Amino acid sequence: MITFRKVFGALFAVMMASASTGAALAGPIDAADKTEVMIEAGDVTLGATLYRPAGISGPLPAIVTAHGSAPSTRDGVGFYTHHALKMGFAVLSFDKRGTGKSSGTYVPFSVETSDKVFRGLASDVEFAVRWIAAQPDIDTSRIGLFGGSQAGWIMPLAASHEPLVSFIIIGEGVPLTAYEEDFHGDITGEGEWLGDKINEADQALRAMTPPEDPGFDPAPVLRALEVPTLWIFGLRDAVIPIAPSIARLEELIKSGKTNNELHVFAFGDHNFRNVATGERYDVGAVAAEWLKSKGVLR
After folding, report:
1. For 50-61, what is each residue's pLDDT tens digit?
2. Which residue has better confidence, 197 or 108?
3. Which of 85, 62, 81 is nearest to 18 (CA)?
4. Rounded CA gap, 147 and 94, in Å?
5. Distant-in-sequence, close-in-space partners of 277: CB < 8 Å, separation ≥ 6
6. Angle subtended by helix axes 195-207 and 178-188, to nearest 10
7. Could you tell me which of 184, 186, 163 has the C-alpha nearest to residue 174?
8. 4-293 architecture in CATH?
9. Structure pTM?
10. Contact present, 241 and 174 (Cβ < 8 Å)
11. CA angle, 83 as apex, 73 and 109 as ends, to 5°?
12. What was the pLDDT predicted at 43?
């Protein structure tokens, strides 16, 4: 069954991201050199923009942005484009298949179609990575992925197939199955933070017996992936299962997958807004510090 609740929630997140950043996010994007392109990506053609940061010469590290579950265009990932440009990356942002100038069909989230749909979306990211790697003045040893929410499933899957990806930054993504995420969301409603309801959903998820087919399962991908990956969470995010996601990642790290690292904002919601102050957390500063520790930024 298609989860329209999730589609609405994703659209709301995109609108909130745009409304809450406004001119604050305009600077690096407005100043950047921009080239609109069309990228052949297997069974679809992706409308995209290549951004190069103003005043910085190559060879540049590069980032491909990835989408949440909403039918968003390249503008819908402007939050990630902004922060990547501010850090000095060339950025390729594209319209999700079936939106904007991209061909194909947008498919809303559903557990039943998640495995097939996510693999198609991951393929789009892979083609985008190969495209930007072929452009002049791009440092192909420093190409990464940056995105949030549903992109937390898509980006590791893409990286598992494309060796050019050298790092991943995931904002508010989940390392759980599509069924687990949807099961949790059915209880919480994916609305505002309601502590009792969130706790109820966390407990129900721990006690739940998974179905034979849980939809897309990221576990095999994450167990095999060696790419350095930063997961950023807000503990007041009511859209995704935060506590179960952190617990799953801690188990993964304890098993030896130390390429995964976590950063947690104590009062962050799904859009990295501090629910206590109303201010946005500086995701870019966290990402930049981590990238410096990995030798990606110098």
Report:
1. 999 988 887 999
2. 108
3. 81
4. 12
5. 267
6. 140
7. 184
8. 3-Layer(aba) Sandwich (3.40)
9. 0.91
10. yes
11. 35
12. 94
Helix/strand/coil (H/E/C) assignment for every residue in the chain = CECHHHHHHHHHHHHHHHHHHHHHHHHHHHHCEEEEEEEEECCEEEEEEEEECCCCCCCEEEEEEECCCCCCCHHHHHHHHHHHHHCCCEEEEECCCCCCCCCCCCCCCECCCHHHHHHHHHHHHHHHHHHHHCCCCEEEEEEEEEEECCHHHHHHHHHHHCCCEEEEEEECCCCCCHHHHHHHHHHHCCCCCCHHHHHHHHHHHHHCCCCCCCCCCCHHHHHHCCCCEEEEEECCCCCCCHHHHHHHHHHHHHCCCCCEEEEEECCECCCCEECCCCCECCHHHHHHHHHHHCCCCC
Kindly list the distances between the CA atom of residue 273 and the CA atoms of 234, 235, 270, 281, in Å, as whole numbers in the listed order: 8, 11, 7, 6
Number of residues that this document lists for the chain: 298
Bond before 59 cis per omega within 30 degrees = yes
d(CA 284, CA 85): 10
The 10s digit of each residue's pLDDT in 61-106 is 999 999 999 999 999 999 999 999 999 999 999 999 999 999 999 9
